[in-house]
Design goal:
There is one protein chain. This protein is elongated. Helix 3 packs across helix 4 and helix 3 packs parallel to helix 5. With 307 residues, it is an alpha/beta fold. The chain contains eleven helices and 14 strands. Keywords: ATP-binding, Nodulation, Nucleotide-binding, Transport.
Amino acid sequence: MNLLEVKHLKKYYATHKAVDDISFDIPRGSIFGLLGPNGAGKTTLLRMITGIFYPDEGQLFFDGRPFDPENDIHQIGYMPEERGLYKKMKVGEQALYLAQLKGLSRQAAQEKINYWFTKFEMTSWSNKKIEELSKGMQQKVQFISTIMHDPKLLILDEPFSGLDPINANMIKQEIFDLSKQGTTIIFSTHRMEQVEEICNRIILVNKGHKILDGEVQQIRHDFKQHLFRIGLGTMPNPAQMATYFFTIVSQQDNFFTVKLNEDNTTNDILSHFIRQDIPVIAFEEILPSINEVFIAQVQKTELPVIA
């Protein structure tokens, strides 16, 4: 079942089409990557999903019914890329204030704060002002403030900004845990390696249009170039490598990157070396990264051949 369904959303500013007829679904409990270059329309999409903007056309469905910003906003947690914290307020006071804004009682909010501050080793920060914290520490405060009310939909815009590897891994693990518990997550970032590691599905938008969407691994397969990396137990001579089954793209010692020729299969590659009595010690398909697909689709260029 989908938690969020976006149907033909449009948002125009004068003559600029910020979002132009975009549709997609986000399954409940999934981690959904929202990707696109600067100015693609991502921020406008997020603002419509959070009820900040109303679409000019189209409709949103939240939890199986038409989206009602007034009532559904308390089921959404939104962590923007820019800091949304009051610099002069103390950390504990601010977390309490933001939790109460999301509908928690003072007692329930304090219990949540105690739990999360202990888990993130932040109890000693409670009486510090936000302006006294590093960028990474502020990011942890902002993350906790976003999830304290147990939202059904969690929107994270560059959540790892300013975090060191240890704290980034801590936040990443919490994202995985929240997803397993049923929280649906929209993850917006420019770091494509994070997308491949974290997201189940993605949508790529550019100039207000949807370019592609689907499962991460399926998209990589859809753009495959029939490239394979093969490791051989002995060094073959040129005659042993000569075949119409594949073309050699590159070589490093006994490891070759080859491109399968049209109408041939992986069995043709393997059987070629078996007939030559050359042991195969490694064999894998090389799929393009999401970063390579992203660049090619946005710039409308061919994918580079991976050596």
